[in-house]
Amino acid sequence: MWFLLLCRRKNRESLHEEDKLYDGMAIVNLAGALSETIAFLVDGNQFTGCRQINYISNSICFIGTVSIGLLWCLYVELRIYRNYKRIFKKVRVVMFPWIVEVIMILCNLPGTGIMFKISKENVYQRTAGSLVGYISLILYFAYSIYLVYHSKKQGVNVNFFPVIYFVGPCFAGVLIQFLFYGITSSWVLVAIALIFVQMQTYAENLYMDELSGLYNRRYLNAVLSERKFTKCKSLYGIMMDVNAFKYINDNFGHS
Length: 255
What we know:
Elements: H1 2-10, H2 17-42, H3 50-81, H4 84-108, E1 116-118, E2 124-126, H5 131-153, H6 163-179, H7 186-207, H8 217-227, H9 245-252
Antiparallel strand pairs: 1-2
Helix pairs in contact: 2-3, 2-7, 3-4, 3-5, 4-5, 5-6, 6-7
């Protein structure tokens, strides 16, 4: 993750707000993985402050998990619509599961056992309240899938949008960690999902024009090259010049 972030900084891929959200997800993933590692190392040990460290590290893991879902939904909104007013209208509703999770974690810190509890022997054990985090994350994933398919019905070009590439591994990680208590897999699979998203973003930048959102000549060349190896050799197309776009592009597009 650190290497990926450094590469993105070097290639100046953090200029747009959605790119900053992507970097935010990567940083949260790093913080979550580090916190979970610390939690495993101190769990069951007895030294001064170990119980407090166990509480704090597990609390960060819970908040980080639902934060990934929130940031992912905001990222999807910006990538598809690029409309800040639309996001500001929805941000309160979208943030509601995150706020509930954070409040429950803060209430859990005094040792109430709402989300998880730490025994006198400094052993971590999750409680029924931890289901709220899993449910919140699933709601975020479901909402992001809905956004993509709803926008596709509206005519938005989202063929390269990597929603399944992200949601699939993340959901698998959450499911494994929920069903098999003690196995940590979510942060590793989130890291893999973020790499998948980066790869799909490269494909989108390669084959689509950023200004118009249309496929470029490179994509046409890729389609033509692929058709050479298929049985169906016929290929048909219609070229349209809408509002003298070709004239404007040829005369002013490179000035």
